[in-house]
Every structure is written in C-alpha cells, then in structure tokens.
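2024-03-11 09:14:02 DEBUG pipeline.ingest accepted 1 chain
2024-03-11 09:14:02 DEBUG pipeline.ingest length=80
2024-03-11 09:14:03 DEBUG pipeline.predict start
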Amino acid sequence: MAKKKAKKKATRKKKKAAPAMEMLLVGSKTKLAIKSHDVNVSGDALEALNNVVYWYIEQAANRAASNGRKTVRGHDILVV
C-alpha cells in the first residue's frame, strides 16, 4: 500500500518579539571611561547605562517614525 502524503501546514509569520536587553556596551571600555573620572564602577552600573542606551534608541526610532522615515539619523537622538 502506498503511504499517504502529509499535508503541509500553512506557515504564519511570527510577530517580532521585543529584543532581549542584551548588552550593547563594551564592558571593559565603558568601565575604563568611567574610571577615568577617578570614581569606582559598581556591578549594576553597566546594566543601568545599557538601559539608558536602549531608551535613547527607542526614542530615536519613534522620532524617525513620526517624521515618516525608517532611517534613524543623528539628529533623532536627543540628549535630554
């Protein structure tokens, strides 16, 4: 007897999940930059600074989108 062919399931596009908060900073260089001001670096300082970088990226992307662009430009990154 011939085997039945399995039906292919329809594939759905998955929604893009929010990116994990992976470290964007180079730890050793960031610590060196902080220590150059004659202060120590705590264990959670890099994580907090990384969160600030993610926030700036989000704000810049929102500003570009509100201006009808898909490209983030330097002037989209506002220092508050």
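2024-03-11 09:14:41 DEBUG pipeline.report Residues 27-33+42-76 form one domain.
2024-03-11 09:14:41 DEBUG pipeline.predict end
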